[in-house]
Design a protein that fits this description.
The chain is mostly helical. It has a domain at 27-93. It is built from six helices and no strands. Helix 2 (27-37) packs antiparallel against helix 3. The longest helix has 11 residues, at 27-37. It starts with a helix and ends in a 7-residue tail after the last helix.
């Protein structure tokens, strides 16, 4: 396992073998799992490895981030929620109890 992946909790990758992850090819998956489940040290680790610009681009393109994590990431990276794909998609999906 490569240097970055050694710093991350292997349980984030419960559905795949973490030994077969490639830090570049699996970038989106790694960022998504660390943003959703990681701690501040792990978030800092991916920031150092991929760069803040790449992390911002990737998290804004994710289909789902839970609401608390979305608030945290929005504040951490100073990105308006409206820039997140998951936020705009949620706003477009009307539930019958929201009327």
């Amino acid at each position: 396992m490569a240097a970055l992946l050694e710093k991350l909790n292997k349980t984030y990758f419960w559905d795949i073998d973490p030994n077969h992850l490639d830090e570049l090819k699996s970038k989106k998956l790694i960022i998504e799992r660390v943003i959703n489940y990681g701690n501040l040290f792990e978030i800092q680790s991916i920031k150092e490895y991929y760069g803040e610009k790449e992390i911002k681009r990737t998290v804004c393109d994710l289909n789902y981030i839970d609401p608390k994590t979305l608030n945290f990431v929005s504040m951490l990276f100073q990105i308006p929620k409206t820039k997140f794909k998951c936020y705009t998609n949620q706003q477009l999906t009307h539930q019958h109890w929201n009327y």
